[in-house]
Description:
The protein is 30% helix and 26% strand. By secondary structure, the protein is α+β, with helices and mostly antiparallel strands. It has two domains: 19-125 and 233-241, CATH 3.90.470.20; 130-231, CATH 3.90.470.20. The strands form four sheets. It has a four-stranded mixed β-sheet, covered by helices on one side. Strands 6-10-9 form a three-stranded antiparallel β-sheet. A two-stranded antiparallel sheet has the order 2-3. Helix 2 runs antiparallel to helix 3 (56-77). The longest helix has 22 residues, at 56-77. It binds coenzyme A. The site of coenzyme A (COA) has 23 residues, from helix 3, strand 4, strand 6 and helix 6.
Amino acid sequence: MAEKTNLLNHSKKMLEQNQVHIWRVNIDNPTLNLDDLFSDVLSDDERKRVDRLKSEKDKRRFIVSRGLLRENLGNYIGTEPSDITFTYNKYGKPDLKPEHNQGNIKFNVSHSANLAIYAISQNREVGIDLEYIREVRTADKIIKRFFTQQETDFYYSQPEDKKKLAFFTLWTRKEAYSKARGMGIGLPSKEFDLNLAPTTVISTTDMKTESKWSLVDIEIDEDYLAALATEGKDIEICRFEFKTL
Length: 245
Ligand SMILES: CC(C)(COP(=O)(O)OP(=O)(O)OC[C@H]1O[C@@H](n2cnc3c(N)ncnc32)[C@H](O)[C@@H]1OP(=O)(O)O)[C@@H](O)C(=O)NCCC(=O)NCCS
């Protein structure tokens, strides 16, 4: 195989036990060499997934998001990006194969429009969700289906010009928590309430249980909202940006 180019202009980062590292990457960056990522970094099943995607834009975004995730994780676990093996739980959440992951590194990924973000932690589950803020014509239906009464009341109490922001704030928090639990849509989203307390998750089926999860909003820019859910308290969040060579 041809010698690999390190596409990332960052040094190895030390991950402390209490930290969650958040990486942000522009997946539409035109300077990235997609052919190298596709042929040298992705696995066979990932290449097949690319082939199944219809639009060129989706193909490009998956190649970059997954390729740079491999590059990034490789730096944490000391493995060549192409040698990383992912396992998937029954809801599709990817994890590192335990044999290659003695430090028990955990991660989660989200992408929306032209950004991807990765959350990386050690010995604690993480879930992250990123959303490009946009009009959602079906907001009322989604709220009815997924939001608790308290969340619904909060949303409808907002002035018209704040509703979009309220919707995506609740949505990203709920998604991040569902993703941290590894269940995605498998987790009944009305059984937990994330309303105005962004640092805790409250089970609506047992309001007295103290949550072991932390939930924080992650500032991106005015066009995006993001939230992180992770096990444990007193978490330090460290933020990094991918810079390509
Ligand atoms: C996959 C899912 C978990 C997230 O989808 P999404 O928001 O469209 O996409 P995101 O970009 O945020 O996340 C996709 C990434 O999450 C990861 N992922 C996939 N399944 C996952 C799961 N069950 N749990 C956690 N992470 C998962 C993958 O890395 C995927 O990236 P990939 O495309 O590179 O493989 C989605 O299917 C889902 O179930 N969402 C929850 C819906 C829900 O119940 N919402 C209620 C809140 S209101």
